[in-house]
Amino acid sequence: MTTSHSGPCLPPSSSLPPVRFLVSASEEQVNAALRALQSLYCPLRLPVLPKSSVRRKDLSAASGVSTPVPVDSGYVSQDEDDDDEAAVEEMTAAIRADPFERTFVTRWLTSLISRAEEMDITEEAKAQVVDDAAFILSSFSDSTNEEEEEALTREFSFPTDLDASIEVTLNDAPLTGTDHTDVGLQSWGASIVLSSMMCADPERFGLTSASLPERPSIIELGAGTGLVSLTLAKLLPTLSVYPTGISATDYHPTVLANLQENINTNFPPGENVNMPVSAMALDWSMPPPDLESSSELLIAADVVYAPQHAAWLRDCAAHLVTDNGIFWLIVTVRQNGKFEGIPDTVEAAFVPELCPKDGQGRSFKILERNQVEKRKGIGRGDEKGYNLYKIGWF
């Protein structure tokens, strides 16, 4: 973890030594990691650290698509400069307030304490490691939890080829900590990457008046904070495409409430007679009959977290999409942790014998699959890249 006058710049989830290697880690490695965590979470209790340089972020798109830099004040700033200490402080504050990172650190410190006796270091060093780890953990429980409970407002700016940018403001609400299904309260890397790609190359996604019917219907599945839907609502009119409506759907009530707040923030009630985006509850396992073949464009970003999710998503999308409609699905690749192998469940759900069939004998199948590289400064530390699927009837 790189430290500076203003604190760390890398999320702990991408910079701490893996738990499985803690026993064999050197005393220097463990102490360096603990110092970095102290500077991040207990900055007022430490002396000023030497300032180190901050590399300029390079967010070039992958897969042959030149994607301009999306500006996200959560983790990255387009105007970042080597000597821009304010930008470093902004990134550090975002990491410090991130519930995902704090949960990751809590588990890492707990594992470190439990394995300290197995480490090949002196008894005195072991005791110091335990004391330091406990000190950081105590700072979490002794605090007023204001940071943890306070929502993080994030400003996104996605450049387009029209010498303009699509601006979206989001409230990333804190996770409740009581329900694992409320992950939609956070904006994940895949939704940021997909939004930036659509703005940079709308033709690739068929977001033109020539590709879409007049007044198309659009549905986002597992919308979460609504970033993709809100981006489309602001992008499409610049392309002379005017949807009948964009339905940002999710299942979790808390997520839907936060989603509605984000819609109101970007399209304040009273200023728009017809709101371009609406929040709607949708259960993938039981899609409403009245929405059958109703959407010309389906979107989903990082919504598969269990094997059954891919099958539910497949059948729900086949129910919702029109005969000539397209379903764009972006799946996050994680190479370790409990979500490792999730992309494989998507591939398995679309094997020929499981693909839904229509009355014309066509299959609802993957038409294209592209790998998209992870952008520096975007997404969580456990994200290694993304699989982008184009799915439709064939």
From TrEMBL:
Q: Where is this region: Disordered?
A: 59-81
Tell me the domain of life. Eukaryota
User: Which SUPFAM superfamilies does the entry link to?
Assistant: S-adenosyl-L-methionine-dependent methyltransferases
Q: Quote the InterPro entries the UniProt record gives.
A: Methyltransf_16, SAM-dependent_MTases_sf
Tell me the GO molecular function terms. S-adenosylmethionine-dependent methyltransferase activity
List the residue ranges forming a coiled coil, or say none. Answer: none
Which CDD domains does the record cross-reference, listed alphabetically?
AdoMet_MTases
Q: What is this protein called?
A: S-adenosylmethionine-dependent methyltransferase
Gene source species: Didymella heteroderae
Question: Which taxonomic lineage does the organism of this UniProt entry have?
Answer: Eukaryota, Fungi, Dikarya, Ascomycota, Pezizomycotina
